[in-house]
């Protein structure tokens, strides 16, 4: 049985709840895409940047820092010259990303319906909305 909001110590609907920030990091565009990319394995920064098409270096860096701070991503710096830094999901990050991947695959599988709905909406007279 799933816990109810009353059973939980945290309430994402409360503006002061710390879970809001983590939810934002996980479900924001770059967070979700970064976690999804890391679902496939361990990546170096530039490999991730190529995998998450369109993300800037600055945004990817900020995203990785936030996910690392939340305990979802592990950053490992190798003492080589030049330095090598690898990123991978932590056990908690993997658990969250499994659920996220289910949502991603669900959305991808329903895109025909979404695109049809967008077309109907965009072609409707403005007053009819």
Descriptive account of the structure:
The protein has 129 residues and is mainly alpha-helical. Helix content is 55%, strand content 11%. The protein contains six helices and three strands; from the N terminus they run H-H-E-H-H-E-E-H-H. It has a three-stranded antiparallel sheet with strand order 1-3-2. Helix 1 crosses helix 2. The longest helix is centred in the last third of the chain and has 19 residues. It is globular and about 60 Å long.
Provide key terms for this protein:
129 residues, 6 helices, globular, mainly alpha, three-stranded antiparallel beta sheet
Give the overall average pLDDT.
92
> In this structure, how is the largest beta sheet organized?
3 strands, antiparallel
Fraction of residues in β-strands:
5-15%
For the terminal residues, how far apart are their CA atoms? Answer: 40 Å
How many beta-strand elements?
A: 3
- Helix percent band: 55-70%
Give start-end ranges of low-pLDDT stretches. Answer: none
Q: What's the alpha carbon Rg, rounded to whole Å?
A: 18 Å
Count of DSSP-assigned helices: 6
Dominant shape: globular
Structural class: mainly alpha
List the helices and strands in order: HHEHHEEHH
Strand order, sheet with most strands: 1-3-2
Summary, kept brief:
The chain is mainly α. Helix content is 55%, strand content 11%.
Layout of helices and strands, plus pairs?
Layout: H1 19-27, H2 29-38, E1 43-44, H3 45-51, H4 57-69, E2 73-78, E3 84-89, H5 91-109, H6 111-123
Antiparallel strand pairs: 1-3, 2-3
């Amino acid at each position: 049985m799933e816990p109810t909001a009353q059973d939980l110590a945290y309430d994402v609907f409360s503006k002061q709840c710390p879970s809001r920030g983590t939810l934002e990091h996980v479900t924001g565009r770059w967070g979700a895409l970064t976690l999804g990319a890391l679902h496939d394995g361990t990546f170096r920064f530039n490999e991730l940047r190529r995998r998450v098409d369109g993300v800037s270096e600055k945004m990817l860096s900020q995203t990785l820092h936030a996910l690392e701070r939340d305990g979802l991503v592990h950053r490992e710096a190798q003492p080589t010259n030049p330095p090598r830094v690898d990123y991978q999901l932590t056990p908690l990050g993997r658990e969250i990303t499994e659920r996220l991947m289910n949502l991603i695959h669900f959305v991808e599988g329903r895109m025909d319906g979404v695109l049809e709905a967008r077309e109907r909406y965009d072609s409707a007279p403005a007053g009819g909305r």
